[in-house]
Each structure stands twice: as structure tokens, then as C-alpha cells.
Amino acid sequence: MTAMHHESKAALLDAALSIFRVKGYTATRVEDICEAAELTKGSFFHHFKSKEELALAAADQWIAASERLFLSAPFRSLPDPLDRLLAYIDFRKALLTGSLHEYTCFAGTMIQEVYETHPAVRDACEKSISGHAAMLVADIEEAMRLYGADGSFSAESLALYTQAVMQGAFILAKAKQGPAVAADCVDHLRRHVQMLFAARQPSAKPVHRKKRGA
Predict the structure, then answer these.
(1) pLDDT confidence tier of residue 117, bands split at 50, 70 and 90
(2) Ordered domains of the chain (ranges, CATH)
């Protein structure tokens, strides 16, 4: 693959990630992607057979970029698992900057629109959200062991709940045209997690872990 070939494909993927979040999947035309990427339709169809194939590739790129961002974040090095979980939530809040399409979720946006009409795209984007939740499970399990959680919830359910709050926060941000309401939702999520472990003391000193890589 030549450098120019790689650059043109990357430009199409970057354009797709941006435009799909602004216009949605159905309203976005191949021409819109090409115009944003400053490439011809011939170049588009050299790389992708269809808009759906591009969306699937964009979902893969979104997953890879998200993993790099969150697995390399500074909070990953915190020794206490509850501190890591709370710092993760703080990190999500800190990302609520820029324009709506820059801080809202590509995967969530796509699922809301195509969950019935384009199941392959839906499943690829669901993989993104569920996979992101799975990154939190180990920290939640460790916090539950360390702080003696009461067993009324599972690590998996709490991890998915964090994503449900974030996706709902993004929808409200779009409805209200700003991040303030989303930030309030994230604050409530933080308080909820704190209350789950309230009045509990760690049963042993947490072991400092090396930062996990992607």
C-alpha cells in the first residue's frame, strides 16, 4: 500500500467519523464524504464498495482510537481501583468540550439511527459501547473485592450503566445544544458510584498495578 493510498483511505475514514456524527448515516451521501475528504468518488470506490462498508471501517477506527485514548489516560496508573473508576468518570466529563459532534459518541449516534435498518453497522457500533464497558469491569470487580460491595449489583451491570448514562447525556446535550446538561449527568453518575461504596473501608491495601496497554 502506497503512502498516498493510505492517506486517501484515512481521509475518507476521518471524514466519515465527523460527518456521520453531524448529519447521521442516512442523510450523509458518498458525495459529502468525498467533499470533506477532498477526494473523488472514484477514490472512494477504490477503497470501499459502499457507504455501509465505510461505516463498518469507521466503527473499527472509532474503537481503536477510543481504546488508545482511555487505556493510556493518566488515571490508569492510580493504585486504588475505586479511584481509577471515579477518575475515569472525571475524564469523561473533561472530554465534554468543543462542538457537539466532537464530544458526542459516533457509535451511539449510529445505533440510534440504524439499529433496525442496518444491522451490520448496529452490531459494529454495539461492539464499541460494550467493549468500552468491558474495560471498566476489572476495576469495578477489584473495587468490589477491596471495599466489600454488598452484592446487589455486578461489575458488568455497573460498567454498562456508566455507558447508558453517557449515551443519554450525549442525547440531552444534542437536545439542549450544549454540554452543561451532559456534565450534570456525569456528576450524578459519579455520586451514584460513590454511594455504592459509601461508608466502606478497603479490606486491604491496594496493590499498585502497571498501566495496561491497548
Answers:
(1) very high
(2) 52-196 (1.10.357.10)
